[in-house]
From TrEMBL:
<dbReference type="InterPro" id="IPR015947">
    <property type="entry name" value="PUA-like_sf"/>
</dbReference>
<keyword id="KW-0808">Transferase</keyword>
<feature type="domain" description="Ribosomal RNA small subunit methyltransferase E methyltransferase">
    <location>
        <begin position="78"/>
        <end position="237"/>
    </location>
</feature>
<keyword id="KW-0698">rRNA processing</keyword>
<protein>
    <recommendedName>
        <fullName>Ribosomal RNA small subunit methyltransferase E</fullName>
        <ecNumber>2.1.1.193</ecNumber>
    </recommendedName>
</protein>
<comment type="similarity">
    <text>Belongs to the RNA methyltransferase RsmE family.</text>
</comment>
<dbReference type="InterPro" id="IPR046886">
    <property type="entry name" value="RsmE_MTase_dom"/>
</dbReference>
<dbReference type="InterPro" id="IPR006700">
    <property type="entry name" value="RsmE"/>
</dbReference>
<dbReference type="Pfam" id="PF04452">
    <property type="entry name" value="Methyltrans_RNA"/>
</dbReference>
<comment type="function">
    <text>Specifically methylates the N3 position of the uracil ring of uridine 1498 (m3U1498) in 16S rRNA. Acts on the fully assembled 30S ribosomal subunit.</text>
</comment>
<keyword id="KW-0963">Cytoplasm</keyword>
<dbReference type="InterPro" id="IPR029026">
    <property type="entry name" value="tRNA_m1G_MTases_N"/>
</dbReference>
<dbReference type="InterPro" id="IPR046887">
    <property type="entry name" value="RsmE_PUA-like"/>
</dbReference>
<dbReference type="Pfam" id="PF20260">
    <property type="entry name" value="PUA_4"/>
</dbReference>
<feature type="domain" description="Ribosomal RNA small subunit methyltransferase E PUA-like">
    <location>
        <begin position="23"/>
        <end position="68"/>
    </location>
</feature>
<keyword id="KW-0489">Methyltransferase</keyword>
<keyword id="KW-0949">S-adenosyl-L-methionine</keyword>
Length: 244
């Protein structure tokens, strides 16, 4: 299986088989010095905007990797889109959720400062945390060889979620909900999965979000950790929407 390297500055959409593509900077350094990619091997290069170029490495340098393209794939953005609204959680549970959700196919991620979140991103920590999640997303995209790089939004409060998700069908993962996610009837709108932290979504938050139009849904009889609930729900939606 080929390795995928990302460079959002490249203009790959106009390329045709036989074209030369050059990767530079940290991505090229990682390919040559860490992954030990050598001439003759096949790799993929993506722009994170739906284009993947596959080809054979022709030259390498300390911070340079050149390939001859033999395949150019252009993937349209998924529709409807799936956004994961992941509550901040203690330890690395929220990061595990972000990583797995990206590999499974989420289209965007919003960090959520929920009432029961033990972890807090305050002041400069908010942007630092967002960048950390963005780095995790980037590596997960490369590992799973995805054509689209999901954006990671800024930290949202409960009060901000309805406006941030305006026009999007908001689904609250709640073990006590009467509607099963597997019974969900798609209506063409983009979807947002809201996943609480340890202890779940607080009752006051449930009331506030339901009043704003959110729909509580459950996955099954068991209660999943915050690190697995979102990815499991995205897998269900992928099947329900025909993406898998």
């Amino acid at each position: 299986m080929s390795h995928l390297y990302l460079d959002e500055s490249l203009d790959l959409a106009a390329l045709a088989p036989g074209a030369a593509v050059e990767l530079t900077g940290d991505e090229a350094r990682h390919a040559v010095t860490v992954s030990r990619i050598r001439p003759g091997e096949r790799v993929s290069i993506g722009d994170g905007r739906g284009v993947l170029v596959r080809g054979t490495v022709t030259e390498t340098g300390p911070k340079r990797l050149a390939i001859e393209a033999d395949e150019v794939f252009v993937e349209e953005p998924p529709s409807p889109r799936i956004t994961l609204v992941q509550a901040l959680a203690k330890g690395d549970r929220d990061e595990l959720a972000v990583q797995a959700a990206t590999e499974i196919g989420v289209d965007a991620i919003v960090p959520w400062a929920s009432a029961r979140s033990v972890s807090r991103w305050e002041g400069p920590k908010a942007e630092k945390g967002r960048l950390r999640w963005a780095a995790i997303v980037r590596e997960a995209v490369k590992q799973s060889i995805r054509a689209w790089l999901p954006p990671v939004g800024s930290l949202a409060t409960t009060a901000e979620l309805p406006d941030r998700l305006a026009g999007v069908r908001m689904l609250l993962l709640e073990p006590t909900a009467t509607t099963a996610l597997t019974d969900l009837e798609p209506d063409g709108r983009d979807l947002a999965l809201v996943v609480g932290p340890e202890g779940g979504i607080a009752p006051a938050e449930l009331e506030r979000l339901i009043a704003a139009g959110a729909e509580p849904v459950r996955l099954g009889a068991s209660v999943l950790r915050t690190s697995t609930a979102g990815p499991a729900a995205i897998a269900v939606l992928n099947a329900r929407l025909g993406r898998w």
